[in-house]
Design brief:
The complex is a heterodimer of chains A (about 120) and B (about 110). Helix content of chain A is about 0%, strand content about 50%. Chain A has about 120 residues and is mainly beta. In chain A, strands 2, 4, 5, 6, 9, 10 and 11 form a 7-stranded mixed beta sheet that branches. Chain A starts with a strand and ends with a strand. Chain B has no helices and 9 strands. In chain B, strand 5 (about 55) and strand 6 form a beta hairpin. In chain B, the strands form 2 sheets. In chain B, strands 1-9-8-3-4 form a 5-stranded mixed beta sheet, with no helix packed on it. Chain B is about 0% helix and about 45% strand. Chain B has about 110 residues and is mainly beta. The chains are: A mainly beta (about 120), B mainly beta (about 110). At the A-B interface, strand 5, strand 9 and strand 10 of A face strand 3 and strand 4 of B.
């Protein structure tokens, strides 16, 4: 299957700082990527849809000014958690649609674990 | 809300076939059935998908009932590394987004 990477794998930061997470499609170009958040023992929750060259579409209840998404190229989407607080500590996962498949199968990155102190 | 119903958890002996059921009684004609799994602290891994016909790949087989209201994922020879949460998802692709339900936690017993 297609390869999607995330960087960093884990990050610890102080409350009030901003953290940027990168999501890359390594062997294909992705016009659409997705960002999810997962709390312990819970399922993945879709945060937003990231579209190359246009604004992201956020799910209800997700603050767009808090979670900044930039999809500047066909292989890179970034999620910036601004002014992070301990309640933002979570496992953040991205996915990307692979247009080479007949029905644009989505492949997921390995996730980024964010801990805010 | 997720459009599928799965058992919360299942056990399977190592080396045996693991059969994971999924109900999707409200599936529409152009929606696919997808299966992903998530091993602890990793991102979801794509397993298989299908529309109407049964499908098989190197990881698993997918059996879809004729009325498409349910399906079964089959791992033919389960190993300890197959311990994970398995998600059954239905969606249209391209213009649709994946909504995850709670999945089935599969325990492979030695």
């Amino acid at each position: 299957g297609a390869v999607v990477s995330q960087h960093p794998s884990w990050v610890i930061c102080k409350s009030g700082t901003s953290v940027k997470i990168e999501c890359r499609s390594l062997d294909f170009q992705a016009t659409t990527m997705f960002w999810y958040r997962q709390f312990p023992k819970k399922s993945l929750m879709l945060m937003a849809t990231s579209n190359e060259g246009s604004k992201a579409t956020y799910e209800q209840g997700v603050e767009k000014d808090k979670f900044l998404i930039n999809h500047a190229s066909l292989t890179l989407s970034t999620l910036t958690v601004t002014s992070a607080h301990p309640e933002d500590s979570s496992f953040y996962i991205c996915s990307a649609r692979d247009p080479r498949t007949s029905i644009d199968t989505q492949y997921f990155g390995p996730g980024t674990r964010l801990t805010v102190l | 809300d997720a459009k599928t119903t799965q058992p919360t958890s299942m056990d399977c002996a190592e080396g045996r076939a693991a059969n994971l059921p999924c109900n999707h009684s409200t599936i529409s004609g152009n929606e696919y059935v997808y299966w992903y799994r998530q091993i602890h602290s990793q991102g979801p891994q794509y397993i298989i998908h299908g529309l109407k016909n049964n499908e098989t790949n190197e990881m698993a087989s997918l059996i879809i009932t004729e009325d498409r209201k349910s399906s079964t994922l089959i791992l033919p020879h389960a190993t300890l590394r197959d311990t994970a949460v398995y998600y059954c998802i239905v969606f249209m692709n391209r213009d649709d987004k994946i909504i995850f339900g709670k999945g089935t936690r599969l325990h492979i017993l030695p």
